Amino acid sequence: MAVTIKSEREIGLMRDAGKILAEVHAKLGEAIEPGMTTLDIDRLGEKLIRSYGCIPNFLNYNGFPASICVSVNEQVVHGIPNDNTVLKEGDIVSLDAGLIYKGYHSDAARTHGVGQISEDARLLIERTKQSFFEGIKVAKDGNHLFDISNSIDSYISQFGYGIVRELVGHGIGSKLHEDPQIPNFAQRRKGLKLRAGMTLAIEPMINMGRCDVDWLDDDWTVVSSDGSLSAHYENTILVTDGEPEILTLL
After folding, report:
1. Of 39, 163, 198, 241, which residue is least crowded by CB atoms under 10 Å?
2. What domains lie within the chain, and their CATH numbers?
3. Residue 203 near residue 234, CB atoms below 8 Å
4. Predicted confidence (pLDDT) per residue in 17-54, tens digit
5. Within 13 A of 250's CA, how many CA atoms are on the CB side?
6. What residues contact residue 200 under an 8 Å CB cut-off, 6+ apart?
């Protein structure tokens, strides 16, 4: 496993990439409303990314046909935007987006409610987001990678939700996906020792029901096997000597 330690120059570029992506996510979140199609979101997302002089890193990545992954309700991740899926009041929609700025990647995801949503849906979104923040409390130089996994699991397990196991977080830098892989569920081993200068994309994916998932026939869209709602929250972070720095938050 080759985990890269970023130089100050690289960290500066990743800060810039992360700030731009945070702004893109903020604008997408403001735009979401009933009646939009998932393709509308993708088109707006690509336009925003390119308006900053950046490249959408998901577009054509391993054949993915869009710039934004738009996943609705029981869709966990990698929903392919289309003209037929229209957002309606009460839906929840997860947006996973990333971009390349001067050769460096950022990656982040948010789940939004469409109009008024149920209390159960609101809590799922809120708790999925909080599980990320519980995880990064231990993302410090000298701790171990799976301390992050165990902290996310410890927080989420009290609610009876299912933590998706087939998909995990990852390192990030000059490539979208770098070592290491970062599970969101408890591990028996410690994992590698964290060092200042590591950049990680931590992304809990949480189902309201069981943890099991299926892939649709498009070979991309992942759904909860039991049809329960799913939420996703992700940021790119920098490990430091002290508190981790979140690169994709404004």
Report:
1. 241
2. 8-246 (3.90.230.10)
3. yes
4. 999 999 999 999 999 999 999 999 999 999 999 999 99
5. 8
6. 139, 169, 170, 171, 172, 180, 182, 236, 237, 239
